[in-house]
Amino acid sequence: MSKMAACIFCKIVKGDIPSFKLFESDKVLAFLDIQPLSKGHALVIPKHHGAKLVDIPDDSLTELLPVVKKLAVASGAENYNVLQNNGRLAHQEVDHVHFHMIPKPNETEGLGIGWPATATDMEALKKLHADLKAKM
């Protein structure tokens, strides 16, 4: 079985698995997360199958954030997180690109995250900046 045929999100796109659709176009589907972190937690996916963001053609990405924005507005959330993970080490569970829009109504509901920041090293940042800029 191909990865696409086994992909739960591709099955949702095809209608093989029911979902609570909130938005649909030729390239994008948005639906409620069935294991929400808070009321209104929704997923926005490209219909084009790809495991990581770099696997999705640019023309299939153009609508994603505007739809996330519409969901944020529709949810009425004053505070919310937009999350998109790539790979197991980055906590990706489903190998199909997806954006979470997660309302954060209070301290306990919604996404809880830590931010293990490192100390600033200006010389290392200058080198990294030059390396990345050269690759852009």
TrEMBL record:
It comes from Exophiala oligosperma. The active site is at 98 (tele-amp-histidine intermediate). This is Adenosine 5'-monophosphoramidase HNT1. Belongs to the HINT family. Keywords: Hydrolase, Magnesium, Nucleotide-binding. A motif (Histidine triad motif) lies at residues 96-100. One of its GO terms (molecular function) is hydrolase activity. It comes from the Eukaryota. It catalyses: adenosine 5'-phosphoramidate + H2O = NH4(+) + AMP.
